Amino acid sequence: MTNVEIQGEPPPSVTGGEIKIVAKAILGSEQPDTDFELSLAFVSASEMRNYNRLYRGKDSCTDVLSFEGEELLLDGRKTRLCDIIIDTNQVFQQKGSKTFSEEFWLVLIHGLLHVCGHDHIRTADKKENGRRRR
Predict the structure, then answer these.
(1) Residue 42: which of 63, 20, 21 has the closest Cα?
(2) What pLDDT, in 10s, does the model give residues 28-70?
(3) Most buried in the list 39, 52, 70, 82, measured by CB within 10 Å?
(4) In order of start, what are the domains of the chain with their CATH numbers?
């Protein structure tokens, strides 16, 4: 079973229940034989900047940080401990012509795919329908 714990306030345009449904659906379809204990935190711009500096060595803001954690064997099932941190202020600033909700879901899904092991830094993960993504 996958558990999603939300810390901080989700953006007003989505509910914690919706977030949990989407997270469980993506994690379950990407790694059906693994349970997840996912902590999803919504933080301020200054907190995100500190996390980005601490974990990536970049003294700047970012929209999402994902941490694919340890895999444990709990009750006979593989369970992965993971964290995702989102700065909704950054999400709003970068949304461009999209609605905040559209950008938020893209950022959340991006983070969820990272905790499943997808990494757009590797060449194979950058390819989409034979073309490289930007």
Answers:
(1) 63
(2) 999 999 999 999 999 999 999 999 999 999 999 999 999 988 8
(3) 82
(4) 3-128 (3.40.390.30)
